[in-house]
Design a protein that fits this description.
By secondary structure, this protein is α/β, with parallel strands linked by helices. The chain has 8 helices and 5 strands. Helices cover about 55% and strands about 15% of the residues. Strands 2-3-1-4-5 form a 5-stranded parallel sheet, sandwiched between helices.
Length: about 180
């Protein structure tokens, strides 16, 4: 059994919400990669990107992801939507963690983003000048092959709440009827 779970997927697919529930179900620690980056930098992702560009943010993201994956012990980790852009970390992630791709369609992602008014302040646009719909469509299309290459498993989040999704992932780690020894 792997000691870590890494949740990957686009923005608004439920990585943070599912990760928190899953960590409680497993009684494992939980970390949200974006929140850890913000805490270490003392500023929001939007502020980091404004000061350092996406390259600066991605450097911070890669360093922290590697550190968390290599650290001993159990962990449920909600990765940022772009962690899969770090090709050099894919094998480490797959070796050290059960990587689960949380999937959602364009309309669901747009609805979830619209329901979170703080998203725009915290997370800058990924595609300059694009409408939210155009950005989501482009990012999902570009990253889907990367999420697939990283993931050991895929979970469709359409129509399911964080608890149900967490239960499905927990069953991958601890199949029903098996107690941890």
């Amino acid at each position: 059994m792997k000691e870590k779970v890494l949740l990957v997927g686009a923005r608004a697919t439920g990585k943070s919400a599912v990760g928190g529930v899953l960590a409680r179900r497993l009684a494992w620690p939980f970390a949200d990669l974006d929140q850890r980056i913000e805490a270490a930098a003392g500023r929001s992702i939007a502020e980091i990107v404004a000061a350092e560009g996406w390259e600066g943010f991605r450097r911070r993201e890669a360093a922290l992801l590697a550190e968390l994956l290599e650290a001993p012990g159990r962990l449920v980790l909600a990765g940022g939507g772009g962690v899969v852009l770090h090709a050099s970390l894919r094998e480490l992630a797959r070796r050290r963690a059960l990587v689960v791709w949380l999937k959602a369609g364009v309309e669901t992602v747009l609805r979830r983003l619209a329901a979170d008014p703080g998203t725009g302040r915290r997370r800058p646009a990924l595609v300059a000048g694009a409408s939210p719909e155009a950005e989501v469509r482009r990012v999902l299309a570009e990253r889907a092959p990367l999420y697939a290459a990283w993931a050991h498993a895929e979970v469709d989040t359409e129509g399911s709440g964080p608890e149900e999704i967490a239960d499905r992932i927990a069953a991958m780690i601890r199949p029903p009827g098996r107690e941890e020894g």
